[in-house]
## 1
Amino acid sequence: MIFVSGANGQFAHAVIESLLTQVPAASLVVGTRNTGSAYARQLTGRGVQVRESDFMRPASLREALQGVRKALFIPTYDTNDVRLHQNLNAIEAAREVGVEHVVYASFLRAELPTVEHSRLVHLPTEQAIRVSGLGFTILRHALYADILVGDLAQTLATGVLRRPSGTARSAYIARTDLGVSAARILMRNEPSGRTYTETMEQTWSGEEVAALMSEVFAKPVRFEAVPAAQWPAYMTDNWGVPPELAVSTIGTMQTVEAGHFDVVTGDYARITGNAPLDMRQFLQSLRT
Ligand SMILES: NC(=O)c1ccc[n+]([C@@H]2O[C@H](COP(=O)([O-])OP(=O)(O)OC[C@H]3O[C@@H](n4cnc5c(N)ncnc54)[C@H](OP(=O)(O)O)[C@@H]3O)[C@@H](O)[C@H]2O)c1
């Protein structure tokens, strides 16, 4: 059986829906803290086993992983120390109940120490998986393209896309594509020990994205760079991101500004056999 953690999350949703187009619902187990949510109940109705599971409660993880052969662990949005603790709980539970292969959703260039969540969560989690004795696949995700359009209505209404970086290019990829590729890894007989870095086939600067938005949505959009150091306050004031989480993204944004995420790989196509959505297709998919 295949297990996906955190069923109510957006990335989990993309993985689960992709899996359900290709495997019988009965072969899928999903974990969630909220088995009563609308989506959890819908999945139960479709024949998926929905099990209560919380990274903070190892006993719930051991229960939820019973009979599971391959498990995808998706990190949470908690603070970095908590997230690492959660991931280590998940790895230990997988080991204890005999899961054969774990898949971990990591982050682009997780080795870069300037990115706080990579240094404190993703890299130590990857290392713990490597020495766990479990079969494994690491999926290093580029920045979600979705984070460029989280406030699309406001961007189009004001004609201004505000983000850090500016001229530096960064790798992005659509979260739905990442769901397709993760599902593919979970379904197939994947050899252990591979790390994939998933990106679109081209990198993008904020200015280039704004120009493309103007074209795709037929509305003028200009780019306005927010300095990395001011980005946390912007996220908190405009989007309500908790300050402790927002402040931990400064290093990530400085890393973007320094051009360290200007990376293109063919790994997505290597996994799925198809090209990922490019930025134009991604934006076009949002047109109403
Ligand atoms: N590459 C990127 O640019 C990028 C961008 C944003 C985020 N991320 C990472 O990708 C992850 C998924 O993103 P998303 O957009 O799908 O986030 P999301 O929609 O906010 O989902 C967060 C998930 O965390 C789960 N969760 C929270 N606390 C948990 C706990 N104690 N135990 C088990 N699960 C718990 C929730 O599941 P239930 O409610 O069902 O329990 C939910 O699935 C994020 O958490 C973050 O680590 C990457």
## 2
Amino acid sequence: MELYLLTGYNGFYGQSRKPWVSLSTPTLIKELRVCGLTVHTADWHDLASGSFNPRDCNILYTFSQLTHIRDWLKDQLHFLAERNRLIPSLPLLLCHENKGYAWLYQKSKGIDTPRAWYLCDPRDIPSDLPYPIVLKTISGTNARGVFLCRGHQELLDRIKALVPAISPTVKLDHLRRRYLRGGRTYPGYPGFEPKRDADDWLQYMRPGAAFLLQEYISGLDCDYRVIAIGSKFYLMRRLTKGGDFRASGTKRFDFEAAPPAGLLDYARSIAQRFDTPFLSLDIGHKGGNNYLFEFQASHFGTAAIVRSQGYYRQVSGSWEFCKGGSSLEQTLAEGLAEYLRGQVN
Ligand SMILES: Nc1ncnc2c1ncn2[C@@H]1O[C@H](COP(=O)(O)OP(=O)(O)O)[C@@H](O)[C@H]1O
Ligand SMILES: [Mg+2]
């Protein structure tokens, strides 16, 4: 089975400890070969120059959190996806660092709790929204863009705080358009009227922000990070602190926690619906129910893999804990090989 590994500059394939830390790419390639895969490599230079132009190939790609590279990569990979199999798949690429698209995607896969609303303007906030409600910025990590809003006014204030103020340059330009363009006409557009046009322009230039609203699951003192790599499920419990509902970013990890009943089945049912060998899930568990707060198929934190004592896997219908560590590169390579052979259960 053939595979292209598309790395960043200098063989970068992320992420390891942090987004800017690469895995050992030579080790990853070695492990992929141990799994029986024929591995070719290309990097972003090859993508930029157009010399990387494969057809009917499996492409495992690295990604980036940096906005300009992320946008560029999305454009490039979008076209590669027309003729090749992207790993993770194209929709999961679009989910990355985009909680809005991620919600639309998970909903299309039948995963619709907690309920969410992906909006671009406060006027679309439903009148029957259940409060308190969780407001999330579209990108962001470590809970920096996640807020609890107790009522409609607090929600509006929070959204407003996410939006930058109109810049002095825009304000000045508005005055110029309004008061210094008295004689201006536009041939073919007899309706042009400078004052109204200036006000319409200002309205159009008003900064805004898209955002996600998510039903609040109250009373949790932790969430669970489950990382599914092929048929292996790594678990880590993350504790909240100081009356704050957010477990992400607290750095209070528990790698020994036993999974609550049904949690791993839930994680597995999601992994089976998403087209990827690697999936990181942030799950809330309450009253026997599971709630998907967030997921990533690439560039997720890997602590649950490297710091836990082992992983869970299903054997004859029940979950078994398999003790023992393996390197990140080996784990990813084996998970990918399983996925490509269609052996993930
Ligand atoms: N709908 C929710 N109800 C209750 N707690 C939530 C909800 N969404 C997120 N959280 C908490 O907030 C944390 C951060 O949210 P998350 O969407 O994972 O953002 P981030 O990308 O910053 O990690 C989660 O780890 C969880 O503890
Ligand atoms: Mg999270």
